[in-house]
Specification:
alpha/beta; 633 residues; 16 helices
Length: 633
């Protein structure tokens, strides 16, 4: 039955709605295609080889201020140049220079126990039997004298005995009050061990070059392996303690534990200096296609803790050649694309992280690009051979939005990952303090700061997992490649028929208005317009399209992130909603719903629950919109 009278012209909504759908679909496909990003360019082997190179003896642990650290900077610079990555440092260079204090620990330390004739009875090795701290009150020593062995009874011993001695004690944790107490009473040092298999177990193997909390009072301050503590205890004599009490008229030792004692003939020598050295961050960039698109900083610290004793060195493969290797491979992948990213991407090799996180702090205080337009991804310790999952860390609200979106991409890839809300302790922390959205990817800290942090500490599979998450984030969010690659051939055909149907209806409408007598295969447009077939098609579209839109909208809302969040950053909306992922989940749900039956979803959820959830989220969104409208007019 054809249109007559007022019904001859369809209502405007019936005319506009299909066209809007058509335009939306076509625009989505065209824009997605134009922003195509080839993630297959990524090679985990390239990242792995960078790690292997930077962890090799040539770089001797990459300690800030050393020639080996400069070699690491040159390696990164050469890679940038070979790729055509532009300088993003100061004065059109790749570098941003700064000064920092870097502890230098003696590579030939001495720790000996001698008998009364000067014969060496026992000798202990740094990073095997003990280690020294460089932070806080930690300092060097040139000591020949007695050790006061107090076990757990530091405050039971007369404090006058502490003067000019090194104290050894057992403690559940390293307590600053104990250090202050030894300094107050003239002690020359404090060495501690733990009484349980706590986090301090095997810490004697670890080297740190942190200078946090340095002040004017320094003593020998370090950690003993438990077996070292046991050996030293064998040399401890209670009778020597009694002699000291009697000699100095300090009273009786009757109430003192026989676990206490004094070790005679101890020699400890370790030079520990804190020079100010010159160093630099290294910065490269790929310009974005939009000048107001903002900046994404992909950063990783390149320094480690340097050399050890007896010609050994700390390779720092996991910490943090892994982060640098991944950053360099991401730079190659992004540079290899035919299209430019929407944001300008800064590749940052931070320096002096190990001795106080100075490099990134200097950048935040002296940014080469506006912080308020930046977002940060920090890579630190990724690809651990002992990792079970990727850790996506953040601390503040904007970072939580980035973390949530990164986690969604991990879920989409079926990669094990965990969102971690933690107080930052790496290069992203300074950006967080300036309210810059920042997250960190890590996956484990096994063997870091030890001789065993070699290339064998890296798993290609785990490294690839982190890389795939990053690549997908960059593809979808930075390049805006949202092409619906999840559609199967049947769905593409159905979608194509829908589009062709809309085009056909629109063409008949337009031609009937322009020239209704025009013929197509001997049939006039007017005849087609008023034909039963066309009217059936038209009414079918009028029925199907609204129903489809309503159902798809409900399913789309139901697939929004459970922690959906939207804030304004730099006057632009900043959200953890990925249109690509939400559309994908919606399509996959509909596919599963059809294939698995109309009663439940693929996850065996009742359809009514999905509808109620969708309605609830719809109501919240509408209410939020109303509130925003009222507040902002």
């Amino acid at each position: 039955m054809g249109f007559t009278g007022h019904s001859k012209k369809p209502r405007i909504i019936h005319f506009i709605l299909p066209i809007l759908i058509l335009v939306t679909i076509v625009f989505y496909f065209i824009s997605s295609y134009q922003n195509s990003f080839d993630e297959t360019v990524f090679s985990v082997n390239n990242a792995y080889n960078h790690i292997k190179e930077l962890a090799s003896p040539k770089y001797n642990g990459r300690l800030t201020g050393t020639k080996e650290n400069e070699l690491a900077l040159e390696y990164i610079e050469n890679h940038f140049k070979n790729l055509g990555i532009e300088p993003a440092g100061e004065n059109n260079t790749y570098y941003q220079e700064f000064d920092s204090m870097v502890p230098e620990i003696d590579t030939n330390p001495v720790f000996k126990i001698k008998d009364e004739n000067g014969k060496v009875q026992d000798e202990f090795k740094m990073y095997e039997d003990y280690r020294l701290f460089t932070y806080g009150a930690g300092g060097g020593a040139n000591f020949n004298g007695d050790i006061l062995f107090v076990d757990q009874y530091l405050y039971k011993v007369n404090p006058e005995l502490i003067k000019d001695k090194i104290v050894i004690m057992k403690s559940y944790e390293i307590i600053q009050n104990n250090v202050d107490y030894v300094i107050k009473h003239g002690g020359k040092g404090l060495l501690v061990t733990t009484s349980s298999n706590s986090e301090f177990y095997n810490r004697q193997r670890v080297k740190s070059v942190s200078n946090a909390g340095k002040n004017g009072e320094h003593i020998l301050y370090g950690f003993l392996k438990r077996t070292t503590y046991g050996k030293l205890k064998q040399y401890s004599e209670f009778k020597f303690l009694e002699e000291e009490y009697e000699k100095n008229s300090l009273g009786t030792t009757d109430k003192l534990s026989r676990m206490l004692g004094i070790i005679r003939g101890v020699e400890i020598k370790c030079n520990l200096e804190f020079p100010i050295v010159k160093s630099a961050n290294i910065l490269g960039k790929i310009e974005g296609r939009k000048r107001d698109g903002g900046y994404l900083i992909i950063g990783a610290h390149l320094d480690h803790v340097g050399g050890g004793t007896n010609g050994n060195y700390f390779p720092g493969a996991l910490d943090n050649a892994s982060g640098v290797g991944m950053m360099l491979e991401l730079a190659r992948v992004i540079k290899a694309q035919d299209k430019l990213p929407y944001k300008t991407i800064i590749f940052a090799g931070w320096n002096a992280e190990e001795n106080g996180i100075y490099g990134s702090q200097y950048y935040v205080k002296n940014p080469t690009y506006p912080l308020q337009e930046s977002q940060v991804i920090n890579l630190d310790c990724i690809g651990s051979a002992k990792a079970d999952e990727v850790l996506i860390e953040s601390y503040e609200s904007k970072g939580n939005i980035m973390r949530s979106k990164m986690y969604q991409y991990a879920q989409d890839l079926k990669i094990e990952a965990t969102e971690v809300y933690s107080n930052p302790n790496s290069d992203h922390q300074w950006f967080i303090k300036e309210d810059v959205p920042a997250i960190q990817l890590a996956d484990g800290y096994s063997n870091i700061h030890t001789y065993n942090d070699t290339i064998e500490n890296i798993s290609k599979e785990n490294l690839d997992n982190a890389g795939q998450i990053l690549i997908n984030y960059i593809k979808r969010d930075i390049f805006k490649d949202t092409f619906p690659d999840y559609l199967n051939s049947i769905e593409i055909v159905l979608l194509s028929l829908l589009v062709l149907g809309i085009l056909f209806i629109y063409s008949i409408f337009s031609l009937n208005k322009i020239n209704s007598s025009m013929k197509i295969h001997n049939t006039s447009i007017e005849d087609i317009y008023y034909s039963s077939g066309f009217n059936i098609l038209l009414k079918s579209y009028y029925l199907i399209i609204p129903v489809f839109i309503i159902l798809f909208a409900l399913i789309f809302i139901a697939n929004l992130p459970q922690d959906f969040n939207l804030v304004f950053y730099n006057s632009k909306p900043f959200t953890n909603l990925s249109i690509y992922l939400t559309l994908k989940e919606s399509v996959l749900y509909i596919r599963s719903f059809i294939l698995s039956g109309f009663g439940t979803t693929n996850g065996h959820s009742e359809m009514i629950e999905v509808i109620l959830t969708s309605m609830g989220k719809s109501f919240k969104l509408i209410l939020t919109t109303v509130i925003i409208s009222v507040v902002f007019g």
